[in-house]
Design goal:
With about 325 residues, this protein is an alpha/beta fold. The chain is built from 12 helices and 9 strands. The protein has 2 domains: about 170 residues, D-Maltodextrin-Binding Protein, domain 2 (3-Layer(aba) Sandwich); about 100 residues, D-Maltodextrin-Binding Protein, domain 2 (3-Layer(aba) Sandwich). It binds aspartic acid (ASP).
Length: about 325
């Protein structure tokens, strides 16, 4: 009897939170909504590697592709809210998709908890080296003359590259055929090979290829030039003001993830973006690094809601939707 009681006490103690393993006690799964080698994946690997040192546990990348990230976010929503599955996303996956996909069976804002805002980068207008235009005006003239022969890559409806293409169509009045990929990593390889001719692509994806002479660049779709490549004119300087889309990234967890875990992950992300080596790598790709205050879960959540209101209005007006 005595032995039984002692056993029961021990079992109860072992199950009590005081004796539970401190978080994180096993590897963390990081869902990435696009294919390996693209901008979201590269961000996940740079940030994830440093965060894992901070947390003392491995961060395992899980590329869940398709439908511009909405399959990945569905998987994240359905994951156990225990801090062992988190997701990286961006303006497209965690804002625009909520306005475009009419059949999502989850709510991107209500069913996920913000962990931290991550860096943002501008879109660049890039083509294969086979396209003969010398500047953006010549490119638009070329597209107008060859509309039926030109195609451009996107990471699916709602992705950053898709929103960029829509803004480009709207302002320039030109159009080309859009080809969806599971991420802009594979799309940019096809662009280099001239299988497709144009992309409105994140700087972090195309800058290395521009520097290597494998792609042509015409403009940065932002109000200001980027410090990573100050020679590239803005879209306004190149004659087409109004094509300005910045793709910010972020980390989320399923609703119900305990506050202490969110705070621990946030602290690891903040420490990561203070690391000079991480900053150098990201800045070299044209990424702007948010301040620790902007990265806080509450500030990030408010920012995401504001972005949602802004983009929902733009998308509803443009009538873009996937049933
Ligand atoms: N984030 C990219 C896009 O939205 C896709 C990717 O990361 O592969 O175009």
């Amino acid at each position: 009897m005595l032995r039984r009681t002692a056993f029961a006490v021990l079992a109860a103690l072992a199950a009590s939170p005081a004796l539970a393993q401190p978080y994180p006690s096993k590897p963390i799964n990081l869902i990435v909504p696009f294919s390996a080698g693209g901008p979201t994946d590269v961000m996940a690997r740079i940030v994830g590697e440093r965060m894992s040192k901070e947390l003392g546990q491995q961060i395992v990348i899980d590329n869940v592709t398709g439908a511009a990230g909405s399959i990945a976010m569905g998987k994240l929503v359905r994951s156990a809210p225990d801090g062992y599955t988190i997701g990286i996303g961006h303006l497209g996956t965690n804002v625009v998709n909520g306005a475009i996909y009419k059949n999502l069976n989850y709510d991107l804002i209500e069913d996920l908890v913000p962990i931290a805002l991550l860096p943002s980068n501008p879109l660049l207008v890039v083509t294969s080296t086979q396209v003969p235009a010398k500047d953006l005006k010549e490119l638009v003239a070329y597209l107008n003359a060859n509309a039926d022969k030109v195609s451009g890559g996107t990471a699916g409806m709602g992705s950053g590259s898709h929103i960029g293409a829509l803004a480009f169509f709207e302002v320039t009045g030109t159009k080309y055929q859009l080809v969806p990929y599971r991420g802009t990593g594979p799309a940019v390889q096809d662009l280099i090979a001239n299988q497709i001719q144009i992309m409105i692509d994140q700087s972090s994806n195309s800058l290395p290829h521009i520097r290597a002479g494998k792609l042509k660049v015409y403009a940065v779709a932002a109000k200001q030039r980027t410090a990573a490549a100050p020679d590239i004119p803005t879209t306004a300087e190149a004659g087409f003001p109004g094509i300005e889309v910045t793709i910010w990234h972020g980390l989320w967890a399923p609703k119900g993830t305990p506050r202490e875990i969110i705070d621990k992950l946030n602290a690891a992300a903040v420490a990561t973006l203070k690391d000079p080596e991480v900053r150098r790598k990201l800045e070299d790709l044209g990424q702007d690094i948010p301040t620790p205050a902007q990265m806080q879960p509450a500030a990030f959540g408010a920012f995401q809601r504001a972005e949602f209101a802004k983009w929902k209005a733009i998308i509803d007006k443009a009538g873009v939707k996937v049933e």
